[in-house]
Amino acid sequence: MSDDIQCSVEYNGRILHGKTDQPLIDFLAEQGIDLPHVCYHRALGPIQTCDVCWIEHNGEMVRGCTLRTANGMKLVSEAPHIKAAQEEGLDRILAKHELYCSVCEHNTGDCTLHNTVADINPAIQRYKYQRKPYSKDHSNPFYTYDPDQCILCGRCIEACQNVEVNETLSIDFTLDHPRVLWDGGTTIEGSSCVSCGHCVTVCPCNALLEKTMQPDAGPLTSMPERIKRPLIDAVKTLENTLGAPPITAVSVMDMHWRQPEIKRAKTVCTYCGVGCSKPVSQFTGKPSDA
Ligand code: SF4
Ligand code: SF4
Ligand code: SF4
Ligand code: FES
């Protein structure tokens, strides 16, 4: 019923009209405005783990993903202290995630993390990326998990525990290096995972990745690791002198180059009777409408 009630919201001095009692991030998206966010997902609601979506609401700095629209709200996202808080949140995430977007299979246009980095466009990465002492899990036929790229946002946990109610996934924050666990610490293939794929579709980066998108998802992604690794290291060194924005500009260009060769479709999960629909992507290696 509340969908029909309209409201006016002041956003950076502009008056916006739309539905009342709607998640603010969705309301803004419908107006063509992106409030930077990483852990919020329309289907999962506010998880509040990324600390990127800061906004000023009626004079108080809050996480934007927690807000729902109401008539007369006053919002500011452009103030320097808000921008600084958003950037701090993003910087902390990047200490858990190595950015190598132009050689990454996930730079498809659907990478929430890449798109947020491009949006905030930080001048330099301030916190050093910390590698985690785990190897990648390839054991499932459909998807992989790379702990080194996992930002611990919790989206996959929410999808598996509370939407699919399969209760396979958890994160053990008591570990020295927290990571996502399948049934408390087994391989994906040895776990109760039913391969519904929901966790993969909501992961905001390449920590969970469909095997159909690996390894040649873009012009540079299939190069052997012995070439890729020194290239990534060289670009990181370059970032210290050039700053991050020119490197981000290249990865945004690369994302656009790939678009014609990515086929997108919706699939329906047949695991239970609910029949949730999920997006799937496949790299075709040729313009997908050819
Ligand atoms: S997952 Fe996204 S942000 Fe991370 S390297 Fe790949 S494209 Fe870049
Ligand atoms: S694929 Fe489905 S069942 Fe398996 S871990 Fe992901 S959400 Fe859970
Ligand atoms: S695997 Fe993906 S969705 Fe799950 S916590 Fe890590 S980054 Fe988030
Ligand atoms: S989107 Fe609000 S804390 Fe992550």
Automatic annotation (TrEMBL):
Under the GO molecular function aspect, what terms does this record hold?
Answer: 4 iron, 4 sulfur cluster binding; metal ion binding; oxidoreductase activity
Where the record annotates domain 4Fe-4S His(Cys)3-ligated-type, the positions are 81-121
Q: Which UniProt keywords apply?
A: 4Fe-4S, Iron, Iron-sulfur, Metal-binding
The UniProt record lists the 4Fe-4S ferredoxin-type domain at: 141-168, 184-213
Q: Which SUPFAM superfamilies match?
A: 2Fe-2S ferredoxin-like, 4Fe-4S ferredoxins, Formate dehydrogenase/DMSO reductase, domains 1-3
- Write out the similarity annotation: Belongs to the complex I 75 kDa subunit family.
Instruction: State the name under which the record lists this protein.
Output: Oxidoreductase
